[in-house]
Structure formats: C-alpha cells, structure tokens
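Q: What structure does this chain adopt?
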Amino acid sequence: MAAKKHPIFDTATTLGKLMLFLGVSAICGVLVAGLMVPAVALTGNTATSSIDFFDQLPDEMNVGVPAQSSKILASDGSELATFYDQNRTEVKLADISPFMKNAVIAIEDARYYEHGGIDTKGLMRAVVSMVQGGARQGASTITQQYVNNVIIQTYAANGENDKIKLGSDKTAGDKVREIKLAIAMEKKYSKDDILQGYLNWVFFANNTYGIEAASSYYFGVHAKNLTLPQAALLAGVVNSPTRYDPVVNPDNAISRRNMVLANMLDQKKIDKKQYDAAVKAKLDLKIHEIKNGCSTAVRAEYFCEYATNLIANDPAYGKTKADREKLLYQGGLTVKTTLDPKLQDAAQAQFANYTPMNNNPDKVGQALVTVQPKTGKVMAMAQNTKLHAPKGQWSTEYNFAVDKFDKKGNSLGGSGGFDVGSTIKPFTYAEWLNSGHKINDIVNASVRRYPVGFNWQNSCGTTTGAYDSSDPVNAADDLQNAEDGRYSPITAHMGLALSLNTATVASASQLDLCNIQKMMTATGIHLGGDPNKPYDVSNISSLLGSGEVAPLTMATAFATFASGGVHCDPIALVSVTNAKGDKFPVPTANCKQTVKPEVAAGVVHTLQQVLKNGSGYNIPLQYPAGAKTGTTNDSQQTWTTGFTKGLVTSSWLGSPEDKNRGNNDKLIANTRIPYVDGSTYAGKAWQSYMNAVAGTFDTSGFPEPPSSMLNPIVVPPPPSAPTDTKKDTKKDDSNKPPAAKKKD
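A:
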C-alpha cells in the first residue's frame, strides 16, 4: 500500500509552485512591458522594483566570429587537411536552404518573427505546465538559444570549460540574464542576422557545429543544397544532439524529423504533397568522416606538418605559440601552399618500388623532396612512413626532409639531416672555379697521404684531418677511392664527375677552406641540427660528406646552381587569410644572386657529365639534367640530388633511427644485395620520378660556361702505382667508374 502523503508537504509543494509561478509571472509581465511600452508607463512598486532589477542586468554580449575550422590547401586549391577545435564553416543566410530556415523555425520557435527575443506565451505555458505537474516544456526562443550557444562555445573555445553551465546547473539569475541578453540582441540585430548566427553556431552532434559542417558531414552537400527531408532531419537534431543523432539513433532521428515535417505542414511552410513525400524518404546518410590535423591529410602529411609549423613558429600569426595554435584551430584560416598534388603523388608512389610502407621490416627510410629553381617553392615532400600508421606500417613523427629547428630554435619536426656523402663535393668544385681555377685544370688525384699537421688553409678557423698509413703514431688509412685503379692526375671536371675522393681533397688542398664554407653558405647549406651554424669544415673529411644536412636543404642548394647562381630560401606558404578575409604576411623566398652565373654554369656543366659517364651514368634523364650521387661508409646514407632547369629533387635512402647502421643486405626492393650506393635505390627513385614529372616544367638546356673557363685538356703523365690499397675509414662516397660497370 502506498504511503500517504503528509498534508503539510502537499501544501508546501503547492505554495512553492505558486510562488514560483507568481515570480515568473511578474518577470514575464516586466519583460512584456519592457518590450511593448516605455518603463515610465508602468505603475506600482512591484513593477518598478522588477524593472530596476532587470535593468541592472548586463545586456552587452560580444558575439564575435565563431570558432571555425582552418583549411590547408595545395597549390591547385585542393584540400590537404583541416584543423579545428569546433568543426565549423560559417556561411551567409542566403547560402542556406530555405527548407532549413523554415524547418528550424517550425520546430524550435514558431513565433520567431513575431516576438522580441522571448516568447512570453511559451514561457507562461511552460510555467503553468510545471505548476500543474505536467511534463517540462521548452520555452527558449531561437534568440535565447543563440545567446546560450555563443556563451557556451566561446568559453569552450577559450579553454574555460569550468565556466560552462548546462541545464540544471543554471540558476534563475543565469536564465534571466540570458533573457535580458536575448532582448538586447533583438534590438541590435535583425531577425535574419540572428537566424544566420544561430544556424552557424548551433551544435549538430558528431563534432559538427553550424549547418554547413553538418550538411557536409551527414550528406556530403553544401547547406544551400539541402533537400526538405535532409533539412527537417538536421533541424530535429538541435533539440537533443545525443538523443536525435541520426548515426547512433536513426529511429529517434526519423521520428523527430517527421515531427518537424508535421509542424512545417501545420504552419503552412510546406504542402501535403511535400509532407507525404518527405516522411516516406529514407534516412540516406552519406557520412563524410571528419578529419582533423595533418595525420588525416589527404596527401603530404609531413609537408602539412612543415607548413603548419611555419605558422605556429611565426610571431606574425600571434604573440605566443598558444595564440598561433589557437588561430590555426579556431581562426577559419585558408592556407594556400606551394605543394603540387601531381608531383606529390608521383613522389609518394616511388616508395612502393623500393621501401613500401607495408613491407619494410628493416625500417629503411626513404624520402623525396622537390623545389622549384628561382622561386624556392617546395613542390613535393614525400617519405615512406606515416605520422600515425595502421598496424604493420612504420610510424614516425620525424620529417626526414627538413631541419630539426628553424633559425629561432622552434621545432620543425625534422630529422636534422643525414651525412651527405659525395653530394657535398660540388661545393668544393664551385669554389675551385670561383677562385679562378678552370674546369679542365689538372688535380693530382694520385695523392693519398696527407699527414698529421698538413697545412689545410682556413682563414676563418682551423681544419685538421689526416690520411697516412705510414705514420706509426697516428695511424690512419690512406685516402680511399672506390676503385683502386683510379689514382692518377685528372681534370677537376672528371674528378667530380667520377666522384673521386682524392680529386676533391687535392682540389681543397689548393683552396682556402673558409671560402669553400662560404660557398656552401651562399647556396643555403647549413647543418641540419642548427640552421644558424654553417656546414662544419673543421675536419677535412667533411668535404667528402661527413656532415649532416637535410634533403630540403640539399635540394635548395642545388637549385642555386640550376638557376644560374640565384639562391632562394625554401617557401611553403603562398597565402594565409582568416575567416574575415584578412591577409597575413607569408615568408618570402628572398631570392638573390649569391653565386656568379659563370661559376653556376661551370658546376652545372660538370654535373651533367655525372649522368653521362660519371657516377650516375646508370640513372640518366630523358631531359637535359645534372645530378650528384652520394654514399657514406657502409651505406648508412645514400643520396642522389639532381635537377632539370625547372625542378630540383633530392632523393635520400638510409637509416633515420640509427644513423650509424649500414643498409647493405637490408630488405630493399624486395631483395637483399651486399652493396647499396647512391644510384642503386635513391638514384633510381630520383630518375623514375623526375622522368615522370619534369616534362611539365622547363626542360630546356643550360647555358654553357664561358670559354675562358673551358680550358683545353692537358694530357696528364701516366699514373704512378698506388702505394696502398687499404680502405679509408672516413666518410666516403664509394664511386664505381662506368668502365668497370659498377655503381656509385
């Protein structure tokens, strides 16, 4: 038997409800009066007190621009990635389907165009229902909901979640304040402006905010193209996004949709024929998964990271890094980049032939990066890993192609570069020509011993290093070429083409190493670990490739030669605008003539020879081109960096996680071979890629160096027999001459 209620509790409950009813009625009366007649027309102490209380409430609210998603675009305007805290794209009311406008008004606020911010009829009806013990009824107008959404989502966007109050957390004061703000908003904005704002701010479940994002997510269409049943479905979601989520609760969503349609019919916003067809329509969702950040990029996720790091590191986009990241995730930025999707896809496709993502147990890293001469534009940046790879694939956050840090010490997410091997040799050769030597001058490549204390010239520092197996105290191997028979006087031109270590060191012994370092700096070469430091030439082995340089840096440096001596800093950003259309400054390429045109022409002249009968004889292009291969001892790192007149690409293959691990006998191209060099896989990938893409850019011939630089070849004397055939332990490009049919 049910317990009998005590009369005093029944009385108290009734009195409590009555007092609440009277209090709300008084407020409603004041609100009606405040909307309809001047305050001075009211009489009575109660009305005056209520008005004073209400007038003292704040009525200013900065709506501002809602947090909007930012888009990273390729050079052709295609989308690479989206960033957001609240997935939203703001649209004008004119770009929203009339069905959507009518549907949301029909279900949320039928008298929207009649009231001044609050619906007193609805409010009174809700209070009466509550006093009578009926079900709780909603009384919030679209304007009130808009105010509520702005308050909540602004707090969320600013990370002030502790200030957010939902439903039962709100006090009577909070609700009255919202009413006051709604009235003030109606006085400040037109009905259409408020409706537009509401439809752009409101939450539609599944992390979609605003009608444009919801239309895209649920149906793959723009808001202006929503059909009647689609619009009715979305209008039904806003009342309770969890309960009416069409993905999780499709039956609830359809039931609510049909209620919206019934209201639209009752309010004569649609006719019976439209209603009958719409209620019979299937849900027919076409879900477009929401992607957030570079790890979900359509392509080029590491380039995306590089580009967004440029924004996050640049004070032009905000005083602090937190400000800049907030701008990226909430500012509705449109970031147009230099990336060429066709080149990117072609570069990424190369790895399937050598180091595929799903069959690379030895974790052999591979990367391709392309820049455009005379502009500095980064056109492609690909590698054989993913930021967040599925099971069975290699995942790493390191971008193999770029430096660890920018010049201000901010992270770029890069590997910091790798020992470059013989790809560094053209810079010694460039200084050889720059200092007045000629292309066909003879260097004594038969010299293999440089004892401790050898006088290496360096006017801005000290350079050490020895190659001398005869020294009983400081034993060091004699300088080693890949081919024992290649120890004889030779032209500087062919010494570089064949990548002879002895030729490079013989050239350097006649030069000021400080000037070699300056030539490197002029082309953009710097250490990958610290871009503020020049390439280190304190040990002579560095001229054979024992310094770490990032692939992007190598590509940019070679572009200086390909462009006739014009150096451009690499750039990834074309334009950055926010949701209001404001433009932000973007870094420029700062292109300058840093190398004499005749010197650049002389280097290009010889690097073309590399692909004809030099160390890259087996990887020629079908277009005029130059390149340089590179390999370190034990094949830890292997390179080919080369160019046509319109594109420069650096191709690298090696060990990013253990830079001292050799790659000989590792599984590459589904096989294991005992020796891997610069042209084996890095070179083949470069060749295949460049042949596929270079033809859509400038492939004309290069200018010849001046005749004064092309001196006649003087036949050198016969080579003397080598004194020692022991291998050198310094970093070494293992160059195999074409006559022996071996690779670099």
